[in-house]
Amino acid sequence: HIPRPRKFVQSIKQILSSNGKIYLSVPNLEWAIKHSAFFDFIYEHCNYFSANSLTNLLYLSEFGQINISYGIDRQFLHAEASRGFKSAISTPAVNFDKIPKFIDEKMNLYKKAANAWGNFAVWGVAGKGTSFLNHLNIKHKRSRYAIDINPNKHNKFVPITGQLIVGPEILLKEKFDN
To answer: Please, what sign has the CA dihedral across residues 160, 164, 169, 172?
Structure first.
C-alpha cells in the first residue's frame, strides 16, 4: 500500500541504528500468478513483489543479510534485512507478461459461474470481496447482500456495485442458492 517502496524503505534505514534490522511482509506476486488470484490485484496494492524483486528493493536500499521466507501457504513474502551489511547479490528479472492474460481468463470464468449462481451473497467485503464484485460488475440487483463479520461495515454499501453489507445472521433470515 506504499506508492514508492524504495523511498519508504530508505526512510526506515535512516532511522535505524547502524546495525538495525527491517522486517517487511507483502503479498507474493508469484503465488497470485500461480493460483490465478485475480482478486489480489486491487487498488490498494500499488506494488507487487516476487522474492527476487523484494530482495532487489532491500539491496538497492543498501540493506544486507537479506533473508526471505514465506507465510500462509506462500501467499505472503517476509523479508528481514540488516543495515550496514551490504553484500553483492544477483537476482533475475521478473516476467509480468502473463498477468493480463490470467486475470482476463479468471474474470471470464467467474463471470460465467456467477451467471449460474442464482441468488447468492459474497462473504467478506474488504479489498478482495469488493474487488471481486466490482471486477465482475455484479450489481446489487444480481446479489443483494455482502456478508462481513465486521459490525462497523453493517448497513453500509459496497462501493460501485451497491450490495448492502450485513452480518452473518442474514443467512438465517434469507434463502440463498450460493
So the answer is: negative
> Under the phi-then-psi rule, with left for phi > 0, alpha for psi from -120 to 50, and beta for the rest, what region is 144?
alpha
Measured distance CA(126)–CA(42) in Å, rounded:
10
d(CA 97, CA 55): 21
Whether the pTM exceeds 0.85: the reply is no
**Which of 70, 75, 71 has its CA nearest to residue 34?**
75
What SS3 state is found at 167? coil
CA distance 123 to 58: 36
Looking at residue 33, its amino acid is: I
Instruction: Determine the residue type at 55.
Output: T
Per-residue pLDDT of the chain (178 residues; tens, 9 = 90+): 788 999 999 999 988 888 889 999 999 999 988 887 777 777 777 788 999 999 999 988 889 889 999 988 899 999 999 987 666 565 555 566 777 787 788 888 888 888 889 889 999 988 888 888 988 889 998 899 999 999 999 999 999 999 999 999 999 999 998 9
Residue 38, all three cell numbers? 485475480
Residue 137 has a CB neighbour count (10 Å cut-off) of 12
